[in-house]
Design goal:
The complex is a heterodimer. Chain A is an alpha/beta fold. Chain A has helices at residues 9-20, 36-39, 46-54, 114-122, 140-150, 164-175, 178-190, 241-247, 259-273, 277-282, 284-300, 334-341, 353-361, 377-380, and strands at 2-5, 25-29, 58-60, 63-68, 73-78, 81-86, 89-92, 96-98, 111-113, 131-136, 154-160, 196-197, 200-206, 213-218, 221-226, 229-233, 236-238, 316-318, 323-324, 375-376. Chain A has 14 helices and 20 strands. Mean pLDDT of chain A is 89; it is low at 384-389. Helices cover 30% and strands 28% of the residues of chain B. The relative contact order of chain B is 0.19. Classes of the chains: A alpha/beta, B alpha/beta.
Chain lengths: 389, 376
């Protein structure tokens, strides 16, 4: 059996491709519904519909906590127990998560990851009439702003750290791709009247007990804007934990947040997993084009150096263990920081602060220890007690 | 040549350089510096990053042998003297140990230990079945009893090592060869010094291949925070059988409360395994054993598992003292699972030998020149 981990666009495309080749496939996802981080709950996405109609089994609400490449098994934690699943071929389509960077006030209630706030709004957090500032970088900011606006939020402005001079060539390239520019036009329509300010970024978030205002560097001028929520998006960080544990630290995983590329990569992986190399190879030109676009995206929205210097000595870098930046003085590696400040040692195991410190200091996070996610000890024992479903 | 190497080459005036900045090396550096010597430490990685970081960090008195008792008892006294000065992040906590007896046979061992410790002035409480249940309500019911050692403690050893190292120059480098007057680094730099203390734990054999030190792999798992779940470091008496065994892989129930409210769950012992990766099967065995004793653990969340290597010796005693045939080289290694416990006493004994001082306990049982032949 082919097992696909992740029911986002890549995972679903992989499952559909393998299924098309006549292979038995099972998809595993930690969320209750398919669609991935961004499209979960959007039942009308074409690929989600195709997946639902395909009859491919989805193990929803299952978190992969460990895997063993020798016995080809994954250990899953479900809300009501544990389960082991065997695979012949595994497709890892674990996607990505938001990257957070520390700045003064980023841990205040009312400050969210852009994708996180969108997900919360989808699951019922009322944003009607709320004043929201969206800041950070990349096209995700526009999508989130448009969504929140659609839910009745008042988007004060979108602060894009990339300078306008870099955005124009990107826009021109976008115009050459009908599908992309159509998406862009729709967003532009949805966001008509919302200031989109390039070369601007959040300097600090302020408030008593919760977010009340945001200080922005707005094209070189420092301004204070009042708001209820701040949605921050500094790009995406690939979730490589499972791949690293199973395959080794040299595994490369792309994460662009770009559904088109994810669908293509997933489909090619699905064909390869099913042993249909010609079909996978036939996708090469499309893949090359989509990857080139993703690279362009990465280059255009590369984080600017100023963002490395927003945090001060008191700014928390590790939320799990409350470690402020000042505590890391004199430390010369993530391991040094972990051992002597507890930074990265909490329940998230450095998922948040690791990428931030990688950006701030260039520290690679070399250690990947099981379990992949915090797991009940009973789950880790599952083999001894037989298959529990 | 980087700055660090220049520092090494330029300063040949160190009386002693300690190779390795684990808890044992750091303690030796502190002791020798406090005795007035000009001391530096050479470390290839992070202070306290080897077995010091991988272990549980208990400060326990053990009675495996008279010599082990003498060393652990002496060292624990030194830990309690140091405790008021330790920084908060060293998480020193006198939570005490509780050895639990599953049956009457193990209960007989409780009484034997109680007699042994009491005769040597170590405070102990013998607990019956109800006493154990009261001391640790999360243990399974029906255990025969237990032995509490109230003076046993727990600490976060990497922070303790950093504290011991304060003010002592830390030189970065990998020692590749010991020479009659010092050592040579992987960069080719030769360093001369009055004496070298080899405190590289399980890596000791790399520099002194004749030493009978070999790696014994162990696994641990740490949980999320559950304050109040556990009061003592709890160990099954079967641990001793497992710790004694020199051939088979073994697991034993050993769980420790951390100051953070986290639980540290052990333990496993494997010989002849060189791969530092966490092994599914071994971790499962270890956790299954823990759940046998503390069924509620099954519902708690584990956040991280890892494995490390203890520096084992054939007679379960460390190697402390002058390297045979090398008057200027001293060995402080082979502490197995008791490196944190015995580090401070080890440092005293090393300093005593180096400075021709009289020691508080006989040094002979730990002499690297001793015979390891069980039939001798």
């Amino acid at each position: 059996m082919i097992v696909v981990v992740g029911a986002g666009p890549a995972g679903i495309a992989a499952a559909l491709a393998a299924n098309e080749c006549g292979r038995a496939v099972t998809v595993i996802d930690e969320n209750p519904a398919p669609g991935g981080q961004i499209w979960r709950g959007d039942a009308d996405q074409r690929w989600v519909v195709r997946f639902r109609n395909s009859g491919i089994p989805l193990l929803a609400g299952a978190r992969v906590v460990w895997g063993d490449p020798v016995s080809r098994t994954l250990l899953l934690e479900l809300p009501d127990g544990a389960r082991q699943i065997e695979y012949e071929t595994l497709v890892i389509a674990t996607g990505s998560r938001e990257r957070f960077l520390p700045f003064p006030g980023w841990t205040l209630p009312g400050v969210f990851g852009a994708g996180g706030l969108q997900a919360l709004a989808k699951s019922g957090l009322p944003v009607q009439g709320k004043n929201i500032i969206v800041a950070g970088t990349g096209p995700l900011l526009l999508a989130v702003a448009a969504y929140l606006r659609g839910k009745g939020a008042n988007i004060r402005l979108i602060a894009e750290q990339t300078p306008a001079a870099s955005l124009w060539p990107f826009g021109w390239n976008l115009a050459k791709r009908p599908a992309k520019s159509l998406q862009g036009l729709r967003l532009a329509w949805d966001l008509a009247g919302v200031p989109y300010v390039p070369a601007s970024w959040v300097v600090s978030a302020n408030g008593e007990g919760r977010l009340q205002s945001v200080v922005l560097n707005r094209r070189g001028t420092v301004v204070t804007e009042e708001c209820d929520y701040l949605a921050i998006g500094f790009g995406l960080q690939p979730s490589t934990e499972l791949a690293t544990l199973l395959v080794g630290p040299d595994t490369l995983v792309a994460a662009t947040g770009d559904a088109e590329l994810a669908l293509l990569e997933g489909r090619a992986a699905g064909y390869r997993a099913a042993g249909n190399v010609p079909k996978a190879a036939a996708m090469d030109p499309d893949l090359r084009r989509a990857r080139a676009f993703a690279d362009e995206l990465d280059k255009t929205f590369a984080l600017r150096d100023e963002l490395r210097h927003l945090a001060d000595a008191d700014t928390i870098v590790c939320r799990c263990e409350d470690v402020p930046l000042g505590r890391l003085e004199g430390k010369d590696s993530f391991r040094d920081a972990k051992l002597h400040t507890r930074c990265g040692m909490g329940p998230c195991q450095g998922r948040i602060c690791g990428p931030a410190l990688n950006f701030l200091f260039g520290w690679p996070d070399t250690s990947q220890r099981p379990p992949i996610l915090p797991a009940r000890i009973g789950t880790l024992l599952a083999e001894d007690q037989g298959l529990r479903e | 040549m980087c700055n660090n190497d220049r520092l090494f080459a330029a300063i040949s005036s160190f009386d002693v350089i300690i190779v390795g900045s684990g808890i044992v090396g750091s303690a030796c550096a502190r002791e020798l510096a406090d005795a007035g010597l000009n001391v530096a430490v050479c470390e290839e990685s992070v202070v306290g990053g080897g077995a010091t970081a991988a272990g549980m960090g208990h400060v326990a008195v053990m009675d495996d042998s008279d010599a082990q008792f003498a060393l652990t008892n002496y060292s624990q006294r030194l830990w309690w003297e140091l405790a008021p000065n330790l920084p908060a992040d060293a998480e020193f906590s006198g939570s005490g140990s509780l050895w639990v007896a599953a049956d009457d046979e193990e209960m007989a061992e409780v009484h034997r230990k109680s007699t042994y410790y009491s005769a040597r002035g170590v405070a102990v409480d013998v607990l019956d079945s109800g006493g154990v249940a009261k001391a640790e309500p999360n243990l399974r019911r029906g255990l025969a009893g237990g032995l509490r050692l109230p003076a046993d403690a727990v600490c976060y050893a990497p922070a303790a090592a950093l504290f011991l190292m304060r003010g002592i120059p830390l030189l970065r480098g990998t020692v590749t060869t010991l020479t009659p007057t010092g050592f040579e680094l992987s960069t080719g730099v030769k360093v001369s010094t009055g004496a070298v203390v080899l405190a590289t734990g399980v890596a000791a054999y790399r520099l002194a291949p004749e030493l009978p030190v070999y790696p014994r792999k162990g696994h641990l798992l740490i949980t999320d925070r559950y304050p109040g779940y556990l009061n003592h470091q709890v160990i099954e008496l079967g641990y001793l059988k497992s710790a004694h065994s020199h051939d088979a892989d073994s697991v034993a129930f050993n769980v420790q409360p951390r100051v953070t409210g986290q639980l540290l769950i052990g333990s496993s012992r494997q010989l002849g395994v060189a791969d530092p990766a966490v092994e599914n099967a071994m971790l499962r065995r270890m956790l299954a054993r823990a759940v046998e004793y503390m069924p509620g653990l099954e519902t708690l969340r584990g956040i991280r598992a890892w494995a490390g290597f203890r520096a084992a010796t054939p007679d379960n005693l460390p190697l402390i003292g002058r390297r045979p045939g090398h008057p200027n080289t001293f060995i402080a290694s082979g502490h197995e699972g008791l490196g944190i416990s015995t580090s401070l006493a080890t440092a005293k004994l090393i300093a005593d030998e180096l400075l021709n001082r009289t020691s508080a306990i006989p040094r002979g049982p730990y002499d690297p020149a001793r015979s390891f032949d069980p039939h001798a």
